[in-house]
Every structure is written in C-alpha cells, then in structure tokens.
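Appendix C reproduces, verbatim, an entry submitted by the partner laboratory led by Prof. M.T., so that reviewers can inspect both the input and the predicted structure.
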Amino acid sequence: MTAPRSLPALLLLFVGSGCAALIYEVVWFQLLELVIGSSAVSMGILLGTFMGGMCLGSWFLPHLLSTRRHPLRVYAALELGIAAIGVAVLFGMPLVGRLYTAWAGTGPSGLLIRGVAAGCCLVPPTLLMGATLPAMARWVEASPRGVAWLGWFYGGNTVGAVVGSVLAGYYLLRVYDSAVTTYVAVAINIVVAVGALVLAGNQPHLTPPHSVVARSPAPAQRLVHVVAALSGFTALACEVLWTRTLSLLFGATVYTFSLILAVFLGGLGLGSGLAAALGPLVTHPRRALAICQLALGVAMAWASFAVLESLPRWPINPTLITGPWMQFQLDLARTTYAVLPAAVLWGASFPLALASVSTAGADHGRLVGSVYAWNTLGAIVGSLGASLLLTVWLGTQRTQQLLILTAALSGGLLLWRDPIGRRWLVPAALGVAALALSVGPVPGMLVAYGRHYAGQPGDSSVIYVGEGWNASVAVTERANGVRNYHNAGKVQASSEPQDMRLQRMLGHLTTLVPAAPRRVLVIGCGAGVTAGAVSIDPAVEHETIAEIEPLVPEVVSTYFGAHNFEVVTNPKVHVHIDDARHFLQTSGEAFDAITSDPLDPWVKGAAMLYTREFFELAKARLNRGGVMTLFIQLYESNVEAVKSEIGTFFDVFPDGLVFANTYNGAGYDLVLLGGTEPLRVDLQALETRLASPEYTRVVQSLREIGMEHVIDLFGTYAGRAVDFAPWLADAQKTSDRNLRLQYLAGLGLNLYKADAIFREMQAFGQPPPPGLFAGTPAHIDALLQRVQVTLGRE
C-alpha cells in the first residue's frame, strides 16, 4: 500500500493522464469525423465507441491482472501503451480511411462499417484509458481514507481533462495541426509513465494477504451500481442538451464546445474533490449519495431555467464584444452560472458511490472498476439516447423533465432502503417532480436568433421550430412578408433581396457555365433556393441534394416553395440525408457540376467542407468540363478566415474565378467558381440559350434578382486566382490535418466587416483577360463596363 507522502505525486500523475486523454479524444474525433462523417449518427458511434472502450477497460482489466503486480508499474505500462497507440492511430488513419471508403455504404450495413472503423481506432487505447484508475486503486489502502484518495484521483483526472480540453481547443489545434497535438499528448503520457516508474522504484509493492473482491450485501451493492449508472445517464444526457442549447446562445464554434466541456469537467473534478475531502467524515455514504441525487434534480431544474429562460434574456449585444478574450470571459461566466451546480453534484456522486460499496480487505481495483464501468455504461446510454433518440422523439423540454425525474428515482431507490431516509422520501420526491414540471420548452426565438435573442426583430414571428438529429431549426416571417431560415442560432437563408440574389447566382452559375450540366450535386439544402435555381435549368436531368439534417428538406424548405420552385417535390431531384463529404467519399457518383453552400465556417464541423482534401475529392467527382461553385460569406467573418477559404479553394482550382454579390454597392458575399479545365464563358451562346422557350423560368428567376441580361450575371466577376495571389500570400490554408478555418472563423463570430474585406479584395481584382469571356464586341464592352462597377472603379 502507498505511503501518504506519495499520494500528492500520484494525484499530479492523474492530472497529466486526464489531460492527455482529452487531447487524444479531441484529435481522434476530429480525424474520424473526416472518415465516417460528422452527422449525429456518426458522432453517436464515435462517442459510444470511445466510452464503451473505457467501460470495458475499467471492468475487465482488474479481473485479468493479478494483485501481485506492482500497481504503479501497471499504470506506467498503460500510459506507455496509450502513447504508442496514439501514434499508431495518427499514422494508421489514412489506411483506415481507405478501407472504410472501399466498404462503406448506407443503411444498417453502413452503420456497422462505421462502427467497425471507429472501433479499430478507439477501442484499443480507450481500453487502456479505462483501466488506469482501477489499476492505481490497488495502490491505495482499504480504509475510508483510502477511498477518499480514490475520489481525489478521479477528481484530479477530471481536472486534467479540463486542461486538455482547453489546451487542445483553444491553442494546440488553433496554432498547430493534429500531428503536433498528438505528440504533445504522447509526451505527457511518457512523463506520467516515467513518474510512475520512479515512484514504483522507491516503494515496493506488498500484496495484501487476504485481498478479496469488495463484498457489500449483494442487493445493496447492486443498487449502488444502478444508481451510479443512472447518475452517468443523467450527466451525459444533460451535457448533450445543455451544449446544444448553449451553442445557440454563444455561437456553435469549436471554442464554445471546448469551453462548455471544460466547465462541465471542472465541476465534476470539483465535486469529486469535495466529496473526497469530506469522505472520512461521512458515516452513511449511501444516504449521502441519495441526497446528492435528489439535489441533482434541483440543480438540473436550475440549469434548465438558466439556459432556457434566464441567460437568453441577459441584455447582451454581441456586436459590442471587442475580442475573443472578452467573449471567453462572458461565455465562461454564463456556462458556470448554469452548469456548474449540477456538475459538482455529479462529480461528488462517484466517490460517494465508491464509499457505499467499500469494505475492509476489498480489492480496490475491482471495486473502482465495477462502479466506474456502471457509471460509464449509463453515460453511454445517456449520450446516445439524448443525441439520437430523446431529443428528436420528445424534445428538449420533455427529455429534461424525464432526466430530473430519473435523478429523483435514483435518490428514492437508496432512501427506500434507509429507515431514517425513508421519512424524507415522499416530500423530497414530490418537490423534485414539481420542479421537473416547471421546465419549459426551448423558446422559438432562441432557436431562430441565438446570441441575438435579446435584440431580435420586433416584427418577426416564428412559424416553425423543430429539433432534429443534428440541429435545431426554425422559420420566421417578418411583417413585410420576408421569410428567414434559421440554423445554428442565426439566419442561414432568406427571401431578402440580397440573399435571394446570392442563392440564385450560386445556382445559375453552376448550371450555365458547363456545356452539359446533366448531373448536379447541391451541398446543403437550406431554404432550397439554390437547389431550386439548379432544378429549373432544362439541361439538368438529375439533381442530388446532400443535406445533413432531415428536418430541412422534409419541413423547412416547404415554407420557401414559392422561392425555390417547389424543389423538394421535383421528380428529378433526389435528397440524400448525410454529411456531404461522407456522401462524396462513399457514393462513387460523378457529376457535371457541384455547388456548395454549407453552414457558416465558424460552426464546428463545417470546416470539413472547406479543406484542400475535400475540394480535391469534389474535383475528382467532376466529369470532364465540370465546375464547382462555393459560397463565401464576408459578414460575421474576418479577413484571415476569408483568405483561408479562398486560398485553399484556389490551391485545388488554380484557374478559379471570383464573383461578387454586393448590396447597395457594399460587399456582402462571394461565389467562387472552379473547373476541371481552364474556364471559358461564351456570352453570345448563353444569350442564345436563354432566349429559347425552355429557359423561360431561368430568365424569370434572374429577373427576380435584378439581372435582366446575361451581362448582369457575369458582370459580377471580380477577378481570377492569379489576380489575388499577392493578397493570398499569407493565407493559412485549411487541410484535414489542421482544420485551420474553424479556428480562424470562430474569432470573427461577431464581426461585421463584409464591405471592408471586399474593399481590400477590390484593390487586387482585375478585369477579365482576353479569352476568358467570348462574344461579340458589344458583349465584351458591356461586360467590361459592368465589371468596372463591381471592382469599384467607375
């Protein structure tokens, strides 16, 4: 058994171990999302596999390893094993990706293949991660004080996880790539392993003469395991719900997700530490655990009130936030205000559960392993259930009520077996039930306007709100009849003139430039306006819409039928529900044109559709003479993010073109256009094509956005890739290894500098060179005059 003087050193080792584990988790999830997709189903598989490995490791390893082995040497071996597998996953991921792409598909078999791919990468290291706490538990004396130190270890591991989450999300992956970030985690593992071996060399292990499996009365022990599972279930389910709602309020950036996770884990560590400190003073740990669960019902109700009612009404104007540091302080305060009380109680539950099943002479490895495994099993069910089933079936309100009642049930189960505690059971349960019923629905305006909730337009009303697998979406209508489609807590598409102009431009450029656009892929359905513009081109025979959220084409787009030409019901249009990247990787289909209008690049996961590898994949799926168009937003962005998007696209399409959508003469957003071959646009041929009767709807569509002639459409030309090369010289390109864009764009969340960015670009834009546009001299002269206006030189 360990000497008291070594316990603080062991605690530091666990802090390091937790830090490395969270760094790995962030990196592995990012790499695997690129392979198996970033949909809710894929994320569910990843999370379930990760936590499943932890569960199995905590359960089986104490049964497989003899108590005669030195616990510190076992712990060191586990850390070195995690480091070795971490490096193997980094270099083996391309092989996994190739094998997955060769076998993947849709339906149940596709889900199975996704699970196999995730399991190959995540199960080996997570088995070892799950075994670290049970292994170290054998180095602790079998006494109340020893059990308290197990709580300290669990808390220290969680505090380390906080550091890892913040370090990876705010610094390592923002500045470096996944390889460097992995090496940092590997280095931490090695330092922890060496520290453990040094301590092992100084303190020989004496096997307890009568070490036995922990034996409380069997029914009582099983009951504590059930409560530990229910506690894990409510914890992870609530984390899913609160993260989803808070990301609407803060902005769904990588920084938001890292911060929420850090506060949640920090609360777990704080609660575990408090329970460990008070553990020796607690004479009835089961009763304390029951009280903790009942108190959780109150804390969960408070969090729901804070997230749904209180925080959205704080009088905060996001446009006044001067920088990321102020944004961090504000979001940290708001997250702590809402989430910390419940997280502290969940953290305290684990040491209390350990104390509830501990007996003299117990094998602490198996004791800790069993409680940890049950808690993790509950967490798996909670995270998957909330993200894939409960939120969609019941909604956030009913799911939160169910979770509060579950916490009350777990506390009631323990109090029912306690003669003294049974007296409190009925009033306590009724009180928690009353709090559960007080939880309200997610406000429609919060879903629609997110962080701008307090300053929402007074003439706007919600006509639809829905909670889907991947996102909460809404449709609003203003008094002037303008409709807005909302996702990620902001307007993503609308019938406003400037938005209609962009969406129609994106669709028509996609089909008018290639000679024969028979098969077209539209990435992102949204309001369906871009897809609708594609669908009315008579040359298009087959259109595929890749949309990640089922609610969007099923419900949302129907509200914009008058603007999108009823695209979803068009017989030549086929909707594919999946991450667009995953669709391109696994379908093998080829297209004559691809247009991409994904979510804002600052939304976590969206950057996967802006990487060099994704553009190369899209280009490889284009038939000869095919083109790709890409929407680039200038609003709610910064110059570094815009440079990253454009520079990365031009790396793959070196002959690419820029078209500008201005609003009242000011820069608003852009369309990039690239092809498999050098581009050439015959204006006279296009004019003839548009004059034919079958193109009447296309002509009318262009007129509705103020484009009476083909010159109006192509007069939005703002330059070629070669023109902007000097401006893009310092662009930070986005790749699968770094996903740089989401970190750059996340820093421009509340900026409104669209026109300033465009003015900076205008200085580099040049009129089109001879040969790019063909036509009569009148066509070319009219085009050049129109381009001069776009470039601000007339």
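The two ends are 84 Å apart (CA to CA). Additional entries are available on request from the coordinating office.
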